[in-house]
Amino acid sequence: xxxxxxxxxxxxxxxxxxxxxxxxxxxxxxxxxxxxxxxxxxxxxxxxxxxxxxxxxxxxxxxxxxxxxxxxxxxxxxxxxxxxxxxxxxxxxxxxxxxxxxxxxxxxxxxxxxxxxxxxxxxxxxxxxxxxxxxxxxxxxxxxxxxxxxxxxxxxxxxxxxxxxxxxxxxxxxxxxxxxxxxxxxxxxxxxxxxxxxxxxxxxxxxxxxxxxxxxxxxxxxxxxxxxxxxxxxxxxxxxxxxxxxxxxxxxxxxxxxxxxxxxxxxxxxxxxxxxxxxxxxxxxxxxxxxxxxxxxxxxxxxxxxxxxxxxxxxxxxxxxxxxxxxxxxxxxxxxxxxxxxxxxxxxxxxxxxxxxxxxxxxxxxxxxxxxxxxxxxxxxxxxxxxxxxxxxxxxxxxxxxxxx
Length: 405
Hints:
By secondary structure, the chain is α/β, with parallel strands linked by helices.
């Protein structure tokens, strides 16, 4: 019976593989059907008139080539050699306060790249996703192993959302529709992503790298309006800067790089917040560009989904913990939260490899753990006021780091 079952499973796997191949061929044969033009504008140093690109070079390992094709085939044939992940992670959801104090800043990790930052009376969400799957129609794609760290109904009124790019685990239409219908938040993203949002009835402001907009302008006031709020709650006294990082974009097979990917600096009365979005290292000059806008009180940096083959420490468009520590240093940030791990199984590292590796690389640089400490999903922290990061003794166990799966 067991042998028969394995034969049936093998046949089903092969049939599934051929179905995927057929779909890929269909995409090649009928590109106009799946292609989308999200943005039209003049060529620039990162836009050729049709597609965006990384001006510091592009490494597409994670999305093209035989390595990815082999990984898909192994998965469909039941030969997935990735380290095991738990089926579910216990989460104790937080119940955030309505807002932070005038100079206060609180951050709650909701899961994946979603963080609720409450700063100077405004409530901010980064790349919000409450869906069970990171994929089209909430039917296909990786399934979350941890429920959101804040129940949707327990969210305070959201004032501002920043969306880094259009991959399904970062631009989640069902979540964004619910947020728009409930709170009418201001949404800021990179060029082209507004087209995707507006198709679902969600207004958004799209900017190019290096552009910024004030909360007053987002609210329909004059760009130079002086904000004086009698009650600081939901006071639009902030500015959002869309900044360079190193990634790519696509929602279909042939709409690749039709919309821009970005990081953000959000200036508030309580201090600057940096959100890296999804990013590789690239030329590693972009963190300094963000740092020039002023001291970073809180940085939100990805550390997971960096390994797509055994032993890999980073991929072209996803940094790992080692590079996250380097970016933390180049930002000159005071406190950071590591994200993009432990929620959706996207790559080949073990569930807890990213945070364990992060702690080791912090030791390598003599940085206190509390400055860049992994959080539990649903955990909130009071972000300390900005202070330079002191350095202690450096202890680096490269052998232990290399042994992590």
